[in-house]
Amino acid sequence: MLVAGKNLRSQAPTTNTSHQHEPPATMIIINILLILIAVYCAAMMAVWDVRARIIPDVFLFPFLLAGLLLCDQLPWMPGGFAESALAGAIGYGVGFALNIIFKWIGSKKEKKNNRISRPTTNDQRPATSDQRPTTSDQRPTTSDPIGMGDIKLLAAGGIWMGITGLSIALIAACVFGGIWGMLRRQRYVPLAPFFFAGMGVAIAVLIVTE
Question: Alpha-carbon distance 61 to 37, whole Å?
Answer without folding.
Answer: 11
